[in-house]
């Protein structure tokens, strides 16, 4: 058994209070909105895994292709002794990176809001990479992070294109907070989906099998279970649109007819007009100049930019 430590910086019960606050804030304004983090209960996480295997959803495969091709270069460029992974989930796609960083790698610090995902990932890693110290952090990395005192150089990885879920001001805040974690010689490895034709983008978020629609509607089940909302997922329709001006895909839930969703525990009733849409996710798509610019804005310098053969997705390596 390798050493395994788990630190929780999230109180056990914040989720309930945060969800309540997001519902009160997001559903009493126009247009209505909910943050995408509420998709990921056990069922939602399963549906997301299913999405990553859909023919239309290319980002996961494209990023894996880049990681496979570039892991050696990443290891050589960083010489990392600690790998910190933000939003590590199952840590599955990180396996190549860990393999490439060995034998210099001493510590792996997966950070996720899901303790069960962290425990599962640590267990799998222990079997495959004996000797690696794993210091799992249960934390919400959008709220500032305190990292354990592991050896440098550190490589902070933020993969999957999840940065695209943040709005521009949130991204700026997030990148500045990552910057404060980095000492000279440390680096950030970040995955970003890229701007491309509208048909490809929309299909990736509105697949033929309806898995993304089920994923989107799953947030309604979360509201029902966690807050006792009397909401029927069949009353809503899945919508995915490309906003060419802001260069992001939006997922929305559109009310099929006029209806009211009651939240008895919150003493709240939310009225939807027929056809009214609630935004449930923004997934920003990037160009190299924007990534370089936003990194620079946060005090980070883009050192490497790698894409898959088809140019659909990019991995950026940035230094402090
Ligand atoms: C996990 C945030 C990268 O935005 O593409 C997949 C989530 N939403 N299909 C993305 C998602 C709809 C995904 N990220």
What does this 3D model show about the protein?
With 320 residues, the chain is α/β, with parallel strands linked by helices. The protein is 35% helix and 26% strand. It is built from 9 helices and 14 strands. It has helices spanning 14-27, 42-51, 59-78, 95-101, 115-128, 168-181, 198-204, 211-227, 288-297; strands spanning 4-8, 32-33, 82-86, 107-112, 133-138, 154-158, 187-193, 236-243, 248-255, 259-263, 268-272, 277-284, 301-307, 313-319. The protein has an 8-stranded mixed sheet with strand order 1-5-4-3-6-7-14-13, sandwiched between helices. It has a 4-stranded mixed sheet with strand order 2-12-9-8. A two-stranded antiparallel ribbon has the order 10-11. Strand 4, helix 5 and strand 5 form a beta-alpha-beta unit. Helix 2 packs antiparallel against helix 8 (211-227) and helix 3 packs parallel to helix 4 (95-101). The radius of gyration is 20 Å and the shape is globular. It binds N,N,N-trimethyl-histidine.
- Which series of helices and strands comes N to C? EHEHHEHEHEEHEHHEEEEEHEE
Low-confidence stretches: none
- Give the ligands present: N,N,N-trimethyl-histidine
Instruction: Specify the overall morphology.
Output: globular
Name the beta content range.
25-35%
Integer average pLDDT: 93
Helix segment tally = 9
The helix-and-strand class reads alpha/beta
